[in-house]
Amino acid sequence: MCGIFAIFSSSLPETDLRRELINCSSRIRHRGPDWSGYKVIEADVSLDRPLSHGIAHERLAIMDPESGSQPLVSADGHIIVAANGEIYNYKELYAALKKEYTPKTGSDCEVILPLYDEHGPTAGMVNNLRGMFSFILYDRNSDTYFVARDHMGITPLYIGWGNDGSMYFASEMKCLIGECTKFQNFPPGHFWCNKGDKPGEFQRWYKPNWAPEMLPGGPIPTEAYQADVLRHAFERAVTRRMMSDVPWGVLLSGGLDSSLVAAVCARNISRRSTSFPKLHSFTIGLDNSPDLVAAKKVADKLGTIHHAYTYTLQEGADAIRDVIRCLETYDVTTIRASTPMYLMARKIKAMGIKMVISGEGADEVFGGYLYFHKAPNAREFFDETVDKLSRLHMYDCLRCNKAMSAWGVEPRVPFLDADFLQVAMNLDTNEKMIRKGPGISKADTRIEKWAVRKAFDTPEDPYLPDEILWRQKEQFSDGVGYGWVDHLKEISEKEISDQMFATAANRFPHNTPTTKEGYRYRMIFEEFFPGEAAEKTVPGGKSIACSTERAMAWDESFSKRADPSGRSAGVHDSAYHEQFEADTKIGGDVEPPSKKQKA
For the chain, how are helix, strand and coil distributed in percent, rounded to 5? Predict the structure, then answer.
């Protein structure tokens, strides 16, 4: 994972623009500590280039560490590109080009140069790519700049507007603070170009048949369930992500998703050669936490070289400020889950590992969160999965990417592979729905993510032990140890007074915090990222166990139990008690903060 940054249409002189470019880009050097590259293109009226441009790249060398430095430049020098991420099908794309192309480097991202040359700044050009990516491209011949982000927003990207009319693009928001008054998330599955039919507008390039605009309300999928088709599609997604020229491993929580990733990786490695280096797996938790115990079982079964890290409640609490600064969010769910991941990433990097494969995305695709137990029908279930996927770039993708990239480690997520999504999201929604409880026979019972569990339930050649394959869903912030979330709430109760919390709506009229924990994170976020533009990059609204607001209507109890923890949904074996209420309650004559969000 790298860091990319650019300033286009700048009125600054060359020397000042270069200084600004380096200053802003250096703020994301943690993403790419291996090398820095800068290109400044000076204004030249004789070439129809009235303003100057600058492109920067902070490199984490995964593919071709020796010669793959960026920004990449075409042979004739007219196309310049800075890319973040991986293009997994780059070899197939080279082979399919109409005009033969000889790569100058072993970088997978170099394929963007001939693709642009062949297709131009179009949706078709981006739609050829399979992977996780954001890229910034400049064409000297036409003074065109063309920027795109992957289908799910696996890689982060922001866009900002300078006071002089310039355009800023950056992997992280911290590059834009103090430089742009207005900035926002660059929407996933879109591209932006300063020329063409719709100059200066976001244009969608990712239009899957199951939700062409990534909005709910479309036809409910009805594709028949075929276990082998689903299994083979996922295996292809995982093996695609095993390409690397540096040491790599897998994140292994012991839950279903990460365990399946590890199982497929381990099988693939064993088939290559008995002498091939063994797979490294990593997990973290409090002492004796559910994830540590489950991950050890999986690692023993798969024969990985397993690294189990523990952290204390104090170590986690001490890291909160750094986590909020690195992740650029005040979302409670994300901060709770990111902290142990952030701590683990530092340990992984210290071992010389630069890439890991992880299990993010499965819960959104298959309805794996525990609140899906309450989905009333297939329409609600499917619409919720579409909404969850469309927002993933602000939650789990952001968490996984920025928590790991904070220490120069690249995470890859096969459950979000575009081709796998085409199979999994077209699956009949009724095959994903949870059927459990009185009146449901054992044979007809289906727990969360039944479809993918069943696909890998192969007794004749088991991928995983049954106790792991059929283990109940744990959200990462719970699985690392139930005491972690409770400890964070206790700290917030001590630091945020009733009087402070009672006036929360005055201090934070947008996305007003409804808990003291949320108020505390908002205060810290504001220190690093002040201003209205920054606060609006973070989503808000009520949530039960990571749901969207839609699901709050699925069960009457949800309105009072709106907490990100999976235990709040009321179906977990260690669920909160029936009287549990998520919102902070304060006594006396002090009024609680308004729950109404600013329009």
Answer: 40, 15, 45
